[in-house]
Design a protein that fits this description.
Blueprint lengths: L3 E5 L5 E5 L6 H4 L1 E2 L2 E2 L2 H6 L3 E2 L2 E3 L8 E5 L4 E2 L4 E2 L4 E5 L4 E2 L5 E3 L4 E13 L4 E8 L2 E5 L3 E2 L5 E13 L4 E7 L4 E2 L7 E9 L1
Antiparallel strand pairs: 1-2, 2-6, 3-4, 5-6, 7-10, 7-20, 8-19, 9-18, 11-12, 12-18, 13-17, 13-19, 13-20, 14-15, 14-16, 14-18
């Protein structure tokens, strides 16, 4: 197999160059859905000869969802995220299960936020659950002694197999959840396939 070199193009975009031989890119470069076929290479205007314009390669698995409807949490309880800002791979179910289902095996990064109005001496925590089990725990935030709006956040890199799922949960017994794309949300994207 030939070496792969990175060559700056005149427009400043870096290209992957299969150097010195006619080895098809399909044998040395994988995209997120498997091997790129020779037919795909031939039909893609961004691919010239043995160079791939990295600007044409995108991540099809990314989403941003939030809670739009009123909600109250238990201790802990899943947040029924009901509205999509975007979901490029249509892998987040906002209707039935309120979860992200991994389309392929890989490493995914998630960040979530839960905002609530808490009563006196209450705390809030944002949690990520993988396949129904706790995977990541955010910092416990207290309200400091009176009803107030508080936000808890959680983030982390999680390895998933295809069909594994991620859900945002909240701890804050009896708290009233705050809604909106900037208050109670979950964002995620594929970092790399495995």
């Amino acid at each position: 197999m030939s070496l792969i070199s990175f060559t700056p193009l005149s427009d400043g975009v870096t290209a992957v160059n299969a150097a010195a031989t006619n080895t098809p890119l399909s044998t040395i470069y994988n995209d997120y859905n498997g091997n790129i076929t020779d037919a795909n290479i031939a039909s893609n205007a961004a691919i010239a000869g043995s160079k791939v314009n990295l600007a044409s390669i995108s991540n099809p698995y990314k989403f941003s969802v939030y809670r739009n409807g009123a909600w109250t949490t238990g201790s802990p309880a899943k947040v029924a995220l009901d509205t999509k800002t975007f979901d490029t791979g249509t892998n987040f179910d906002v209707v039935t299960n309120n979860r992200f289902v991994a389309p392929i095996a890989g490493f995914y990064f998630f960040t979530g936020s839960v905002s609530m109005t808490l009563g006196d001496t209450s705390i809030i925590q944002a949690l990520l659950y993988k396949n129904g089990s706790l995977a990541k725990v955010g910092l416990a935030i207290g309200n400091g002694g009176g009803p107030t709006s508080v936000t808890g956040q959680v983030a982390g890199l999680i390895q998933l197999s295809a069909t594994d799922y991620i859900e945002l949960w909240a701890y804050g017994a009896g708290a009233t959840g705050l809604t909106g794309a900037t208050l109670t949300y979950l964002d995620g994207f594929l970092v790399s396939a495995t």
